[in-house]
Design goal:
Blueprint lengths: L1 H16 L2 E2 L13 E7 L10 E5 L2 E6 L3 E7 L2 E7 L1 E8 L4 E9 L4 E7 L1 H10 L1 E2 L2
Parallel strand pairs: 2-8, 5-10
Antiparallel strand pairs: 1-4, 2-5, 3-4, 3-6, 6-7, 8-9
Length: 132
């Protein structure tokens, strides 16, 4: 019984640490009209030990650790995004860059995703690394 409990604990720990892109990661090229989307996870110590699921158009596209970001190109239109489930809808226009920041939400003891401007995005992109 003790070995089974240890095995369960180690499996849960490994699953919490899993990170990277999934098979649903958007693969649109920088074609005519495509826009670039950046999803940045801040490097706050809250939740530092585990990955967060990034959802785009109702599919988990990546799992980010603290201090990582992903970027990808999408066609213009309405797209949904969030953490674990879609919570935001963004109207993506052609040939633009969009930045979203995942940070702790201290009022709900969880995380939130919000759109940020270019200056704040520059700050966070300089302090985080791309997910490979």
């Amino acid at each position: 019984m003790k070995k089974l409990l240890i095995l369960f604990f180690l499996t849960a720990l490994l699953m919490a640490c899993a990170h990277g892109r999934t098979e649903y990661f958007p693969s649109a090229d920088k074609s005519t009209g495509a826009s670039e989307v950046f999803i940045i996870r801040d490097n706050n110590l809250v939740g530092w030990g585990f990955s967060l699921k990034v959802v785009f158009d109702d599919k988990v596209i990546a799992r980010l650790r603290a201090g990582e970001y992903v970027s990808f190109f999408v066609e213009p239109g309405f797209h949904s995004l969030g953490i674990s489930k879609a919570t935001e809808t963004a109207a993506i226009e052609a040939n633009q860059k969009y930045f979203f920041l995942i940070s702790p939400d201290y009022t709900k003891f969880g995380f939130e995703i919000t759109r940020i401007g270019d200056q704040k995005a520059e700050y966070w992109l300089a302090r985080t690394k791309p997910l490979k």
